[in-house]
Every structure is written in C-alpha cells, then in structure tokens.
Amino acid sequence: MKQWFLLFAFCCMVVFAACKGQPDEKKALQLKITEAENAFTKKNNTTFDPVSAKNAVDAYEAYTAKLPDAPETPAYLFKAGELYRSLKQFDKAFAVYERILSEYSAYEKAPHSLFLIGFTYENDVKDLDKAKEAYERFLKTYPDHELADDVQFSLSNLGKSPDEIIKAFSEKNAGNTPPNADNNAKTNNTTPKDKGN
Fold first, then answer.
1. What is the per-residue pLDDT for 105?
2. What is the pTM of this model?
3. How many Cα atoms are found within 13 Å in the side-chain-facing hemisphere of 3?
4. Is residue 51 assigned to a domain?
5. Is 124 part of a structural domain of the chain?
6. CB within 8 A of 43, min separation 6: which ones?
7. Residues 113, 160: one domain?
C-alpha cells in the first residue's frame, strides 16, 4: 500500500513540475527573444549586424521548436524567415516559409510567405522557373488576396529588366486614348445649327 502511495505522489510531482515548468520555459524563451531583438535593433540603426541577426534567428528558432502550438510561433517564424533572407541564407528562409504554409496556413501572413518565396527566387536566387512556380502557386491558392495583382504583375514581367518593364508600360499607355475622346471632340465641334439638322 505504501508503494502505491509513493508512486502516486511521485506521479503528481512530475505532472505538477511539468505544468509549472512550461510557463517558466516560455518566459525564458520570450526573454531571449526580447534581448536578441533589442540588441539587433540597437545595432541595426546604422548598419546590418549579422551577428545580432543570427542571435535573433536562434532565439526565434528555439522558441518555435519548444512551443510549436503557441500563438506567437508563426509570427516568430515569419521574422526568422525575413532575417534569413537578410543573411542571404535563402534555403533556410524557404524552409521557414514552407513551414508556415504547411503548419500555420491560417496565419495572416501565410500568403506573404508564399509571395516571398517567389520574390526571393526571382530577385535573390535568380531562379526564374522556381519563381514562376511560386507565383503560380500563389495565384491558385490565394486568387483574391490583396497581393494577387502584384503577383500577377511579377509573373507577367518575370525576367524583364526594370527598363524593359518601363518601356513596355510607356508603349502601352502611348497607344491608349482616353475613353470617349472621339465623342467629346465631335460634341465640342458641333454648332447649334448642326444639332438642329
């Protein structure tokens, strides 16, 4: 009987310690994030400091690994993705963005993650085929999103230089006349005598 009581007491202590430890662990991880972000923003006023950025990414990654179900996790992942892009660690940025899309698809910036995959392939990695894939995936997944027009524009102009885009836009607009321009000219050139006949 005494053994059962000791076993029960031990189990209660383990459960209590686990319940008590999680909030403390969360606070400790959030404190590391706050410290890393503060160090990054202080040093980042003039130049990009890769060491501070890496420390911030490590803090985000530690938090998201330990607390995948916490409400802040997708936001921390998104911040990690942005910093990985800044650090030019594109494979890690892609992995973070894909994790957001697969595990946190309801997160408000999930569409932004997919857009950034395409944007990064297009502008940083210079892999236009992968960029096209990501942009098409975006339009299929989020056709009504506020970024859909931007994605369509990027897809339509994929591989073109800014000068080529400007030239094409100028040529398109030069050929356009305002609607009803011919009707307005006819109306303005008529006299009351003409209107009567």
1. 96
2. 0.73
3. 0
4. yes
5. yes
6. 49, 52
7. yes
